[in-house]
Amino acid sequence: MVRIALVGAGFIGSVHARNLAEHPEVRFVGVGDIDAARAGDLAVRMGTHRLTDAEIYDSDQVDAVLIASSTDTHADHLRRAAVAGLPTFCEKPIDLDLAHAIDTVARVTASGVATMVDFNRRFDRDHSELHRSVRTGEIGGVELVQLTSRGPSLPPLDYIATSGGQMRDQTVHFFDLARWITGEDPIDVFAAGSVFTDPRMAQFGDVDTSVVTLRMPSGALVQIDSARRTGYGYDERIEVLGSDGMIESGCRPIGSVSRYGPGRIVGDGLHAGWFERVAPTYRAALDHFLAALTTGADIGPTLGEALKAQAIAEAAARSLRTGNRETITYPVTPSAVTTH
Question: Are 35 and 59 in contact (CB under 8 A)?
């Protein structure tokens, strides 16, 4: 049994809490949060304990830490876990400030502590099979990749204000997927965006709809379209065109029943929200983290990979502002693992 402490009792924290409480290989030690009452309530519901900061990082009682706190606290918790010598599973991003994220990765890497960043889309069943097929050469050389990320509704403006913008908050998952699928680090990026929902988004310099183009060293092109609002549910899909064929991880409806009538076929619709679509990936990511701890298997996505996705997001956000194609500069940190 791996003894795991959870940091963060908000929405994503509660998702991880349930997975920890139900996992047969985990002893869920407890949960801590800046809001002690919220942590206590979640702990009661999950049959565990509320923890103080000191208890979270007590290596005599805890084997690993899962960080699901607010974004601005991720780096601090990563550093504290490294000092305590505790392996860590952390929600993205490392930090919204790239320089602070780079420094944090350097410090954590120097500690030698195993750390995984939760780019959970990699653990989607269909995306994983697409990745396997592409990387084993089933469709030949990759030439064109299309990724779609369309949410059902605009998040609250107070969330938008602190999210870092669409490139860093939403599209960054698909920057990571693009690297993972192709096995390449994009050279440059061009991003264009618009606001179709709430004009107040302009206050934050953000957009709700965007198209991003990445150019890969091989010449392959990647296009990512992201939208914060649709009229038909949550839509996520990937298509890869190769020299010998094409593979698609399609949008996933809530069911597979089709109703046939005169002149039309009516099928089941899409999930109402993003979480309903991706919920299983959180458990699958936890399984991977535990396997890495208990069997010595490779861990990932790594801190180095998370930094690369963040560097792409920074260049894309810059392109949105300037209207220019921007070169992507990747940070260098001592011994940071950067496998795909």
Answer: no
